[in-house]
Amino acid sequence: MNQNRGAGGRGPYHRPELLREIDWSEKNLQNLKRDVEMFVPLQGQNQFKRMNILLLGQVGAGKSSIVNTITSIFGDYASHKAESTSSDHSVTRVYRQYQIRSSTGTDLAFRLCDTKGIEDGETIRTEEIQRMIGGEKLDMETSEPSYDGSSRSKFQYWKDKLFGFARWMRRWIFKAKALDINMRAYCVVYVIDASTLHVIPENVANYFKDCRKLMKQNEGIPEIVLLTKADDCSTEVEGDLKAISYCPDIKTVVQKVMDKFGFHANQIFPVVNILKDVRVRTETSILFLMALRQMLFEGRDHIRELVDKKKINIDAPGDHIV
Ligand SMILES: Nc1nc2c(ncn2[C@@H]2O[C@H](COP(=O)(O)OP(=O)(O)O)[C@@H](O)[C@H]2O)c(=O)[nH]1
Ligand SMILES: [Mg+2]
Fold first, then answer.
1. Cα-Cα end-to-end distance for the chain
2. Is the CB–ligand 1 distance for residue 229 below 6 Å?
3. Is residue 60 within 6 Å of ligand 1 at its C-beta?
4. For ligand 1, atom 14: residue with the closest CA
5. What is the pTM of this model?
6. 12: Cα within 13 Å, side-chain hemisphere
7. What's the pLDDT tens digit per position in 33-89?
8. Domain residues of the chain, as ranges?
């Protein structure tokens, strides 16, 4: 019998091409969880406590929900620690780092850094993104994105210069190099709403392009895309999460992200966040853990490269762990 023909042999049968081969078994879930729980940023170097993962994207794309989903996967209950919003205005007002813990309460070796996100019509200066990558603690309280040159007043310009100089002095005085290594981001995640990609505002698209350039300039920080709300752009996925690996609608969105922003397919992970669920479903966990493992492993390779190139000094005197 011809394998390429559908039931009844009425015409050619095309099995939808898989986006990514996914093993949905409980065993795979346990393996993925173990890989993430055992992760250390740099083997044999306990100065390196945590690897920071920076979440960037539009307000409402699902960044805070991602923090909640990942917290829930390890906590074995649905957590809503990171405040998620249903309006167009962000409730994540500042840059916030979330320490993820296992169900036994031990700190895992990575942190998710939730950002306010870009709003429709807003322009974020690249210096602001650069500071987010650097994870400067000072900015945690003040990382409200600012507007670019055209709308910046002279006063704002000199104020920024003064604060920049103060930050430089602080670093120089306190030799806070180790603060930097534990605060910096070693992987960046672009959070994109799959259901509204076709109407993504121009400023948001430009923001992603600027970010990509900046990551290249920063020794090629690894980049991953989390394509959220896959359930909102495909009824098939809404009914059965497993359809995410072959559904043509999802494949189309992935292709669009590749074309628009120049990502490779293996950098893009379609996901669905937990929203009202009481427990995290196995399929949800597998999708997120696959993405998370990729972020951690790529981040670790990046850290090794930085150490080899002497771009970070893990033995700097005066180091202190954050
Ligand atoms: N259907 C669906 N809704 C989602 C998903 N992720 C987030 N949302 C909803 O999108 C809205 C914005 O989410 P939020 O996490 O606050 O976005 P943030 O502004 O990027 O932090 C909230 O109403 C969420 O419930 C998802 O995967 N599927
Ligand atoms: Mg948020």
1. 64
2. yes
3. yes
4. 62
5. 0.82
6. 2
7. 999 999 999 887 777 888 999 999 999 999 999 999 999 999 866 666 676 655 555
8. 22-308
